[in-house]
Amino acid sequence: MNPLNHVAIIMDGNGRWGLKHKNSRNAGHKAGLQTVEKIIKETIKNKIGYLTLYAFSTENWKRPKKEVNYLFNLLENFLINRIEELSKQNIKLKIIGVKKFSNKLNKIITHSEKKTSKNNKLQINLALNYGSKFELISAFKKLSKNNESINETNFEKYLQTKNIPDPDLIIRTGNTNRLSNFLLWQLAYSEIFFEKKLWPDFSIKDYNRIIKSFKKIKRNFGSI
Description:
Layout: E1 6-10, H1 14-22, H2 25-45, E2 50-57, H3 65-88, E3 91-96, H4 103-116, E4 122-130, H5 132-145, H6 152-156, E5 169-172, E6 191-194, H7 204-216
Parallel strand pairs: 1-2, 1-5, 2-4, 3-4, 5-6
Helix pairs in contact: 1-2, 2-3, 3-4
């Protein structure tokens, strides 16, 4: 059976779920947060070391301002109210993406990362204002600026996922079959599962079904 050390998830479908059930995209984001908490607990049960969640992309700024503000308020409240509990569970939080938020949210993020920095049961990488194309261009610029040889080892030093193993498994909910500018370098050999369910409807049973399927896959990494 395949070892599973890192799961990445594109949490798609909150807005559509909210419109369908509550006539409000924001209601879907709130419901989606409940799914996040369930998946975190199940990830720990499965003894998976890394969980990367695509929460807000560089393209998501195109959404209505009220929705964007709601999303960040939801994140602020979650970190303020739950960071102590996450830390007690030995969970480390790391933000990947460009940290250009309000002063309040930046301070909350810095505090949360610092408070959990020594934890090692599970590392949650929260992709906020993240775009893989921007990450790759930035890494190449740093490599060039430092006049280093162009190779994978040197290049990966400048990625935002430095010292984080590449995902073994990526899940995208929401019945959309694309990667949406997410970890394009890191997902080169990840097993991809596209799930029809919207993120708030994604269950522990669904998660474990995918994990079980992943463990049965023959992974060749280019060989036979």
